[in-house]
Design a protein that fits this description.
Blueprint (H helix, E strand, L loop, with lengths): L2 H18 L11 E6 L6 H8 L6 E4 H8 L7 H20 L3 E5 L5 H14 L3 E7 L2 H12 L13 H8 L10 E4 L5 H19 L8 H9 L2
Parallel strand pairs: 1-3, 1-4, 2-3, 4-5
Length: about 220
């Protein structure tokens, strides 16, 4: 399937997934995007679930979208391309509604993170980045527990140790300001509070920056100059 065909197929399922995401209040023109970065097993989703108890947010995850795309994920390049295309469409749709959006995915490649920034720029949304990590033996233990059926009820990922080893070879370092959280020994709810304050501070810093406003609001600022 070429890129055009991929995009058309992705749009066919975006509407259905969008309905399942629920609703959230508008917080600012253009919304606000939080990009989670981290390999399978580091604990990104656990932190996100704790953050949901503190903020009204829309969570878009590759794991959730992947279950709509394929019942038995195979983590091929083509499958991942489709999953990310759907996620990008959902993210842009929700940012345009002025909502806080979390993208819960590995986001291990700089090109993918750069593309998210472009989406946010079109909407006028500030981008906050959080990199989650953990000790490798902790990650390995978590992934083996997942495969053996000892997982959280909300854990939708099928990524195992093999997937982790493949992805760890391709990951690229995060460039620019970001928060680093280590889940090896710190509970998710404690880390979520740190992320809560970091995200709100990022939004506050964006309030007076015309480059981080929605196009409509930026036009108003230029007219007042």
């Amino acid at each position: 399937m070429d890129f055009a065909g991929l995009a058309m197929y992705a749009e066919q399922i975006v509407d259905d997934i969008d309905l399942d995401l629920g609703d959230s209040p508008s917080v600012r023109p253009g919304g606000s995007l939080l990009v989670m970065v981290g390999l399978p097993g580091v604990g990104k989703s656990s932190v996100v679930e704790s953050l949901q108890k503190l903020l009204s947010i829309i969570v878009i995850s590759t794991d959730g979208v992947r279950t709509h795309v394929r019942q038995s994920p195979v983590y091929t390049a083509a499958e991942m391309a489709l999953v990310y295309e759907v996620c990008y469409s959902l993210i842009e749709r929700r940012l345009k509604r002025g909502q806080r959006v979390i993208f819960d995915a590995s986001n291990n490649l700089q090109a993918r993170r750069d593309f998210l920034v472009k989406i946010a720029e079109r909407c006028g949304a500030p981008v906050t980045t959080c990199s989650v990590q953990a000790a490798q033996d902790t990650i390995q233990h978590r992934l083996y527990q997942r495969i053996n059926g000892k997982r959280r009820k909300t854990d939708m990922s099928d990524a195992d140790w093999t997937v982790y080893k493949w992805m760890v070879e391709t990951q690229e370092p995060v460039v620019g300001p970001h928060l680093i959280l280590d889940t090896t020994a710190t509970p998710p709810d404690v880390l979520a509070k740190k992320l809560y304050h970091y995200w709100l501070e990022s939004e506050a810093n964006a309030q007076n920056n015309p480059d981080l406003q929605s196009p409509r609001w930026a036009n108003k600022l230029s007219l007042n100059d």
